[in-house]
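Complex record, two chains
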Amino acid sequence: MEREPVPAPADAAPAAGDWMIRFDQVVKRFGDLTVLDHLDFHVRAKERVTLIGPSGSGKTTILRLLMTLERVTGGLIEVDGRPFSHMPGRGGLVPANEKHLRVARRKIGMVFQQFNLFPNMDVMRNITEAPVRSLGRSREEAETRGAELLEMVGLADKAHEHPARLSGGQQQRVAIARALAMEPEILLLDEVTSALDPELVAGVQCLLRDIAQESQLTILCVTHEMHFARDISDRVLMFDRGRIVEDGPPEQIFGEPREQRTRDFLQAVIEAG
Amino acid sequence: MMLSFTAPGPLGTAAEVLPYLLDGAVVTVKVALGATPVALALAFIAGLAGCSGSRWARGVSRGYLEFFRGTAVIVQMYWIFYAMPALTGYRLDPVFAGVIAVGLNLGAYGSEVVRGAIAAVPVPQREAGIALNFGPVQRMVRIILPQAWVAMLPPLNNLWIELLKATSLVSVISVADVIAESRTLRNTGYSPLVVMTLVLLIYLLLALIITLIMRMLERRAAHRVGREPPPLLPRRRRRRPPVPVRGEVA
């Protein structure tokens, strides 16, 4: 596999202590296709950032890199001041191994477009299995927390239901509860309402808005729903071809975009929607 | 027509030979039951190795598959029973040799079933496992295998029946299975028609028992992953109501 040389490790303590996520010259290629092209950006702790942009602009790849579902081709990702995509070794930084990743991704949770609930477990088990197996919680403890989370997402009566017997909206609520059960500090939302029937979208968005407002989570959200982006985020990044075109608060990006590319994209979204 | 039970008519012959054939059937069942865990264990070991990230493990799994799939069970049985003693100086018990040969052979076929079923579990399930920070072994045991198991059962049903039929070859290494018994009976002068019809029925009955067991496992597994369990016995297909012609009042 071709991996670009890693830049020299940053100073032992990162300059700005409150960066939760830092992308430093991150490159991601799939074969000849460059998806992320020397990308630099920071996300502060508790910041809620929405990534917008046309399909193939690299938004989902950023989430997948953070969830360790993909590895960087070049550059470095840091989370909470520590190397994330790499680990110390051989006098510098080397690509992270499974052991490093398992510790590193402890802080991160993800909700997927297609929910990806486990069909071989009921709803409660979907939520409690990871806390029990991976965080070492007792079954009772995990189930108590699971019941609270199900209550929060409005599915307290579905604990022993099978995922296949739930609607798309209900499955996505369970997936949200499942991600939160791992007590992440960073929550990644990957087009979480794109696979839902139109009448179920509002409920899930409303739930996520409440979570965003009431929790201390750092949120990275990829969405094509501009209203949702405006509601949930305090910062919007406009992507095109693996680079950030515009970066600003939602009022500015949606109200008075500075870049022509952003204006064109928003215009296209409005016309399509 | 009155049936005579004194003259050795077909039924009389059947009654005479059946106890011998049933003795043989017990041996057949023993060999099959011995070979089943061997085959199943090898199928899982080689199947999992075939999905492994290690090239070495995949290579060994592939070598095992190609070797045992590509050579006849009967040759493997002869080799283990007659040729191996020349190498090791130690002759295996014929039943044990039969169990090992059949187990090795069907295990090779089974490994492809296991590998294929694991590969067929959707990638997003694996990714959800990573996102929830399950380790590789936990992902396999808690998420992938329980889902793959449902897909494995119908082809494993086929293979289990294949295994039962492959045990018919142990008679060549002097095991007194149902085939060996039938040969003795024919050589003694009993009607081949009667003897071989009974042998057919014995194999069919055993195969049906296997299918029944596998169907029950299939139903349980389907229920566990939230699917409609397949019926235990074939059900009559419900006819769809005829579609009313447009404009016609029902």
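Note: Confidence is low (pLDDT under 50) at residues 7-15 of chain A.
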